[in-house]
Every structure is written in C-alpha cells, then in structure tokens.
C-alpha cells in the first residue's frame, strides 16, 4: 500500500511524543494498515460492546450509517489512506480507553435521537465529543492557581512570569488527531481545546507509554461523568514551553494569537 503521504511527518516534533514510537514503526511498514490491525489485535483493543477494534477501508461504511454508530455496532473503524486517519489510528493505539468512551458518548446520543441505522441530528454532547476527538489537548496539573490563570488567558503570566512553575507542575499530552494533522505544517495560531486533568503529574522518569496509559484511564473515567464544550479552554500549541523556538515575552504578547479573554 502506498504510504508516501507519511513522508511529510517530522517525528522529532515534541507534540508527537506520545505517538512517535508506534507512528515511526507504522510509517516504516510495507502496509501500515495491516500492521495497524496486527497491533490492535496484539493490544486486544475492544469497543464498549466488547467487539474487537479493527481498521477497515472507508468503503465498508454504509451510506446511511453514521461513522460513530458503525464503530459502536461493529468495532470497525473506517480508515482512509491519509494523514487524518493515520493519526486517528495512532491515538486509538495510544489512548484506547478515551477513544472507547468518546465512541460510547456518540453512540448513545445517536441511539437516543434516531434509529440505529440513521444519521442522527447532532446535539451538544456529540459536538463536544467531536471537538475532543479532533482537537483535544490533555493538560495534567494539580496547580489550580496556574490553571485558573490559563483559563483566564493570562498568557504572559503563565508562560513567561511563571514559566518554570508551569514546566514543573504541568504536563501536556496531545490527543486530537486533526490537531496532529494541522501541526504537520505548524503555524503560530494553531489552537487546541484543552482538557485540564487536575492531578499531580506522573513522575518525570516514568516511561512515556506508562504516562499515557495513566492519563488514558483517568480521562476516560472523567468523560464517563459527562462532557460539554464548557469543559474546554484554548491553548496555542506553539506556546507550550519547549514546543517552539524563541518563546520570549514578545512571542506571547502577540495578541492576534494569544488573545485576551472576552469580557461577558
């Protein structure tokens, strides 16, 4: 299978750290989707109905069935040969519990609003789940004061004045696959939807795969309690400390990117 589209990925980028190891291996495979399914089987990935997760051609998705309903009913994830679906697959391998919970939220809403084989009208829960799936950034920190400043868009305070505090008390894990796709060609205004995980960071010496597994479990449990767009806060990806060069005070004072919070 031709996977030349994967050659544009710069795996050294810090935001790809969570998916780098498996991504590099899949990108080197003769057939990345075949290798993807081998790994899914090896990990025994299953959906909320305990059906094995398998990645299948997009053509398998019936025209009258919603994408999320198909995954729920069959365990099959329609997958195209492009960056968007490649990154989506990497997230399934890295944060499977979150992906299963998001699919469950979507499937419940579809079943609530329409018959199982119809495309349901979207609602607030489905919109929030889609935003999470496509664009979420998982930010782990027990520093409530610093997280409040982040929610208030106090960018200079968080990333300049208290930068060392942010680096000590916070850890950022990129989740959204559409966000990963955008960052293949990074630009300053790319912004994620931050989901703040109010826990102390995993130990820095804990292997990254174990950190991701811990985050996966915690966030899946949080999502099981509900999800709305009010849970999100914006975060400019190239503003994360260490994710871009020349992050001086002037960098964060660019109000076309690091915008002040709107007043009600």
TrEMBL record:
<protein>
    <submittedName>
        <fullName>DUF3025 domain-containing protein</fullName>
    </submittedName>
</protein>
<dbReference type="Pfam" id="PF11227">
    <property type="entry name" value="DUF3025"/>
</dbReference>
<dbReference type="InterPro" id="IPR021390">
    <property type="entry name" value="DUF3025"/>
</dbReference>
């Amino acid at each position: 299978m031709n996977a030349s589209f994967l050659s544009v990925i710069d795996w050294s980028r810090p935001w790809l750290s969570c998916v780098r190891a498996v991504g590099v291996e899949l990108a080197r495979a003769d057939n990345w989707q075949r290798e993807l399914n081998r790994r899914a089987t090896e990990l025994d990935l299953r959906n909320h109905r305990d059906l094995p997760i398998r990645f299948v051609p997009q053509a398998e998705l019936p025209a009258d069935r919603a994408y999320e309903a198909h995954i729920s009913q069959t365990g099959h994830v329609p997958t195209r040969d492009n960056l968007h679906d490649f990154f989506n697959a990497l997230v399934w391998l890295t944060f499977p519990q979150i992906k299963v919970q998001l699919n469950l939220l979507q499937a419940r809403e579809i079943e609530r609003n329409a018959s199982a084989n119809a495309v349901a009208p979207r609602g607030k829960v489905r919109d929030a789940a889609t935003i999470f799936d496509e664009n979420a950034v998982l930010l782990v920190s027990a520093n409530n004061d610093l997280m409040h400043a982040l929610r208030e868009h106090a960018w200079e305070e968080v990333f300049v004045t208290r930068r060392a505090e942010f680096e000590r008390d916070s850890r950022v894990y990129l989740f959204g696959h559409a966000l990963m796709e955008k960052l293949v060609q990074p630009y300053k205004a790319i912004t994620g939807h931050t989901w703040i995980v109010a826990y102390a960071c995993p130990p820095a010496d804990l292997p990254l795969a174990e950190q991701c597994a811990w985050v996966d479990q915690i966030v899946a449990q949080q999502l099981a309690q509900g999800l709305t767009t009010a849970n999100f806060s914006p975060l400019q990806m190239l503003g994360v400390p260490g994710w871009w060069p020349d992050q001086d005070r002037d960098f964060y004072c660019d109000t076309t990117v690091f915008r002040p919070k709107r007043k009600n």
